[in-house]
Amino acid sequence: MAKKSNPDLIQEKLNEYIADQISLYRVMWARGELPTGPEDDLTPIELELDEIHDIIRGHEPWPTQTRSAERTIRKHLNEAKGVPEEELQDFPLRYLEAKSAALAYGSLLQKGAPEEARLKAVKHYFPEFRQPETQSPQHEENGPLISELRDKFQAERTRAGLEERSIKATTVAINYFIELCGDLPIEKVDRATARLFKEKYSLYPKNKNKMPATKDLSFEEIQKSDIEYEPISTTTVNNNLTKLSTFFNWAHDHGYAKENPIAKMKIKESKREKDDRFPFTDLELQRLFDPTVHNFKALRRESYFWAPLVALYTGGRVNEICQLYLDDIEVVDGIDVIHFRSARPDQKLKNPASIRQVPIHRELLKIGFLEFVNTQRERGEKRLFPELKFTEQGYSGNFSKWFGRRKEAFISQDRRQKVTFHSFRHTFADYLRAVRARSYEIDRLSGRKSNSMSHDRYGSDLKIASLRETLEKISFSHILKIDELSRIAREYNRRRSAADT
Q1: Among residues 64, 50, 56, which one has the least CA distance to residue 96?
Q2: Is 364 exposed, middle or buried (0-12, 13-18, 19+ CB in 10 A)?
Q3: What pLDDT, in 10s, does the model give residues 249-270?
């Protein structure tokens, strides 16, 4: 196969740019996210196209993005070695032509024009454009299939001791790819195939296998039907693109694939959409921990009473808390701490930075947490919450489902999707920032992985006494009825101890 010249590569990159933009417009159109027009009935897409016309005609200055795009192309082509001078001189104009082609497609898509007319407009602005061909789902004897490498990848990560939940999540993402694009030989998966996957997956029904109308239908059958459904969120799409990218990086590193076709395929999200979870508001916490509903009679389980309180005062992740053993509650330098660690086969942490000792806050002590721990020890228990059973999600599986149901009574409908148990971590961090805790202190207490130099310099050497001093600066006494919660906890412990004797 003849090696491509640098001008050919420029053409290929501009072709890819147009194809990526077309794919993005299709996704936005299908999801109802294309911008609407202002009062003069011109859509923002058409206005941008007019601006580019003025630039090309010389009525407006050349925008900085053309220079930026030129620098990107130059870097990709190894500083443009061997590119004829006229190619470089013409590049900004060709880039604007490519951008015009994509904008013309988006404008006609919004007006409901057929695909043939859209592509004709693209070629009007960029005659060299060739629609990338997607791969046929027919299997070819050309290297291992995606499913074969999926199994190898899964086995390798299992042997390496990676978290089972993480392995399963990546496997699910790979299975989505196979479902929508076919079980192709890995070498046949290129950027066009990846774009096709992103396009289809962005329209995938949310909770497809739980909805009676869609669970027994294929994706193609759903698209041809009149079934109304909510597509998965952009965040979910990007999360699974990230997992797929990890898989294809592995395939490339092991010599199975020539490139990672998923690289840089993520959909750009608004800042608000990127924030995976919101912190709790003070009013939400007040409702959640109101003693009239946050008591053992109403909750019926000790973990339901204590785990949310531990999360509030430690910023612990849900499985970190649910998997605690009683010997993880210890004394260090005379200070009571909770030791988050993975000392046993059934204990898993997100990363090495998650291993930490967090001082037990004075308000949590006042509510009676240590008395509860000691009662569990006297009963001969090994784990803090023995009623929580181990599942594929660790010890937190059923607990998380319970909390998901419980929060609905206290969280407004417009916030429910973004407020979860993980919101306790955001609340904990926000309260620490409010008392001017340093970033390395917050990272150390929360078990967050940090790339900051200050964390490397100071965070790893923080003493428990210093951490307690920082932690004690925050308080939830203005929200929680500490004395009433303490009375409820101690009365329950007394009744349970009396019943055991």
Answers
A1: 56
A2: buried
A3: 999 888 888 889 998 888 876 5
Euclidean distance between CA atoms 93 and 97, whole angstroms: 6
Query: Whole-angstrom Cα distance, residue 480 to residue 288?
Result: 9
Confidence band of 489 (pLDDT split at 50, 70, 90): very high
Tokens of 19: 């194809």
Do strands 356-359 and 329-332 pair parallel, antiparallel, or not at all (unpaired)? Answer: unpaired
CA-CA distance, 242 to 64, in Å (whole number)?
30
> DSSP of 54-120, one letter per residue?
HHHHTSSPPPHHHHHHHHHHHHHTTTTTT--HHHHHHHHHHHHHHHHHHHHHHHHHHTT--HHHHHH
User: Which strand (E) or helix (H) includes residue 325?
Assistant: none
| Beta carbons within 8 Å of 128's beta carbon, 6+ residues apart | 11, 14, 15
What is the spatial distance between Cα 156 and Cα 148, in angstroms, rounded to a whole number? 13
Q: What angle (nearest 5°) sits at the alpha carbon of residue 35, between those of residues 33 and 41?
A: 145
Residue holding tokens 């930075």? 353
Residues sharing a CB contact under 8 Å with residue 78, sequence separation 6 or more, in sequence order: none
**Which uninterrupted H or E stretch holds 24?**
helix 6-30
- Phi, psi dihedral angles at 129 (to 5 degrees): -65, 135
DSSP string, 270-293: -HHHH---PPPPHHHHHHHT-TTT
What pTM value is reported for the model? 0.53
209 and 181 in contact (C-beta within 8 Å)?
Answer: no
**Between β-strands 335-340 and 356-359, what pairing exists: parallel, antiparallel or unpaired?**
antiparallel
- Segment 88-98, tens digit of pLDDT: 667 777 778 88
Helix (H) or strand (E) holding 480: none
User: How many of the other CB atoms lie within 10 Å of CB of 139?
Assistant: 12
**At 16, is the secondary structure helix, strand, or coil?**
helix
Question: Which amino acid would we find at residue 165?
Answer: R
Q: Do 92 and 67 touch, CB atoms closer than 8 A? A: yes
How many whole angstroms separate alpha carbon 214 and alpha carbon 217? 5
